[in-house]
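Quick review question:
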């Protein structure tokens, strides 16, 4: 079992919290610890912690070969994406803020989810 990563937020050294448990027994983790997850969700950031997740999609600059035009009304629309696909690599250089639409398109393009669809029998 891999050691859990450290929270991506600046000045926070807590380990990340679990996101979900899969049927095969695997656990997925958020890129943030439980305290920061709740703090960002309710705008209750701990003093001295600088949150990584921002209320805009980083793809407005066209880094995914198209420009994001989504209207972000709440930070809940933003997801933290791991650029190299490694969920344990929580360095700020490897992460970016993407809206749900851009994140889904990036994942599809990189075929990170190809095994998920190969398991489905039609």
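Suggested answer, residue by residue:
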């Amino acid at each position: 079992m891999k050691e859990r990563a450290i929270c991506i937020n600046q000045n926070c050294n807590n380990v990340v919290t679990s996101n979900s448990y899969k049927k095969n027994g695997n656990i997925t983790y958020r890129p943030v610890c439980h305290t920061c997850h709740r703090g960002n969700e309710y705008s209750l950031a701990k003093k001295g912690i600088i949150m990584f997740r921002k209320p805009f999609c980083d793809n407005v600059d066209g880094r995914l070969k198209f420009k994001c035009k989504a209207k972000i009304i709440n930070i809940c629309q933003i997801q933290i994406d791991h650029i190299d696909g490694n969920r344990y690599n929580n360095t700020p250089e490897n992460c970016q803020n993407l809206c749900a639409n851009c994140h889904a398109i990036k994942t599809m393009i990189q075929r990170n989810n190809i095994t998920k669809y190969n398991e489905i029998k039609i």
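Why it works: Confidence is low (pLDDT under 50) at residues 117-122. The chain has two domains: 1-52, 54-122.
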